[in-house]
Design brief:
The protein is of the alpha/beta class and 282 residues long. The chain contains nine helices and ten strands. It has an eight-stranded parallel beta barrel, surrounded by six helices. It binds phosphoenolpyruvate and manganese (II) ion.
Length: 282
C-alpha cells in the first residue's frame, strides 16, 4: 500500500507535523526519549567472555543503561576481524543474564535478522547499511527497537527517509544515531555533526543518540563530545569501552578504558543535573 505523503514533504511518519509528541521507547526500566539520558556502552566487538563480562560489570557500575558489543563486524577491510557471529550473540545474552543490562548489537544481513532479534534488546543498523532498504524492511517487521546510524555521507533527509521505511513497515520504535560524516578533515575519523541533534528534534519526534566514538575516532575527544551531545539535547550516547584498548581487535584508538569511562560518567551526571536530565536511571 502506498503512503500518501502529500502535505508532508518527502517523509511523513517520522515528521513532527504528523506526530507532534516525542516518541518514547521503553526497554526494561528505561524510557528512551524521556528526560532520561541514556548511555549504551561496551566494546566495539565481542572478543571473549572475559572481555565482555569485565566490561559489562564495569559500565553498569558506572551507570550505563545498556551494553553494546558487535558480533557481526562491518570492517573496511575483508582481512580484519569479522566478529564472533552467533557465539558473540550468546555471550551478549549471557552478559545480560548476569548483569541485567539490556544489550545492543548490529545486524548486517537480512538472513540474520531473526537470529539477532532472538538474542538482543535493541538492534543496530550500521552506517554502512543505512540505505540497505531490504534490511530496513526486514527489521520493520520486528517488535524491537532499532537504532539507525547515520550513513557516512547521508543527508538528514536521506537518513529520515531510511527511518521512514522502518516506520512505514510497522515498527515505530526507531532511535536515530549521529555517528559522524565524511568531510575533508583527516585529523578525526569523521566529523561529528552535532547540528543534527537539534535539527532532528525539530523535524522529527524520534529519539536522537550520538556516537562520539565513531564520530571522532580518538579516545581523547570522546568525553568532550559526549558532553557536547548532552548539551545539544541528545537522548543518549553510544560509547566504546574496552578493558585494554591497545589490545582491542577493533577500534582500540577510539575506545575508553574502564577508568576513563567512569570519569566521563561522573562528569556527565553533574552536567545532567544542571540540564534537568535524569541520570543515573535507577
Ligand atoms: C559500531 O557501532 O561498531 C559501528 C561499526 O558503527 P558505524 O556503523 O557507525 O560505523
Ligand atoms: Mn566500532
Amino acid at each position: 500500500m502506498e503512503t500518501d505523503t502529500s502535505g508532508f514533504g518527502p517523509y511523513k511518519l517520522v515528521s513532527r507535523e504528523y506526530k507532534p509528541e516525542d516518541t518514547l521507547i521503553s526497554v526494561g526500566k528505561s524510557i528512551i526519549g524521556s528526560p532520561q539520558f541514556h548511555v549504551i556502552a561496551g566494546p566495539c566487538a565481542v572478543e571473549s567472555r572475559a572481555q565482555l563480562l569485565e566490561t559489562a560489570w564495569a559500565v553498569k557500575e558506572a551507570g550505563a543503561t545498556f551494553l553494546r558489543g558487535g558480533a557481526f563486524k562491518p570492517r573496511s577491510s575483508p582481512y580484519s576481524f569479522q566478529g564472533l557471529g552467533e557465539e558473540g550473540l550468546k555471550l551478549l545474552a549471557e552478559a545480560r543474564e548476569e548483569t541485567g543490562l539490556p544489550v545492543v548489537t548490529e545486524v548486517m544481513d537480512v538472513r540474520d535478522v531473526e537470529l539477532v532479534a532472538s538474542y538482543v534488546d535493541i538492534i543496530q543498523i550500521g552506517a554502512r547499511n543505512m540505505q540497505n532498504y531490504f534490511l530496513l524492511k526486514e527489521v520493520s517487521r520486528l517488535e524491537k527497537p532499532i537504532i539507525l546510524k547515520r550513513g557516512q555521507s547521508a543527508t538528514l533527509e536521506e537518513w529520515l527517509l531510511a527511518a521512514e521505511y522502518v516506520l512505514d513497515g510497522g515498527n515505530w520504535q526507531v532511535i536515530l544515531c549521529e555517528r559522524g560524516i565524511r568531510t575533508f578533515e583527516k585529523y578525526t575519523r569523521n566529523t561529528l555533526d552535532l547540528n543534527a541533534v537539534p535539527a532532528l528534534k525539530n523535524i522529527s519526534h524520534l529519539p536522537v543518540f550520538v556516537d562520539p566514538s565513531h564520530g571522532t575516532g580518538r579516545w581523547e575527544l570522546v568525553t568532550p563530545m559526549a558532553k557536547a551531545a548532552l548539551a545539544a539535547g541528545a537522548d543518549g550516547i553510544i560509547v566504546e569501552v574496552h578493558p585494554c584498548p591497545v589490545k582491542a581487535f577493533s577500534d582500540g584508538e577510539q575506545s575508553l578504558t574502564i577508568k576513563k569511562f567512569g570519569k566521563m560518567m561522573t562528569e556527565l551526571k553533574k552536567m545532567a543535573k544542571v540540564l534537568d536530565r535524569v541520570m543515573p536511571i535507577e
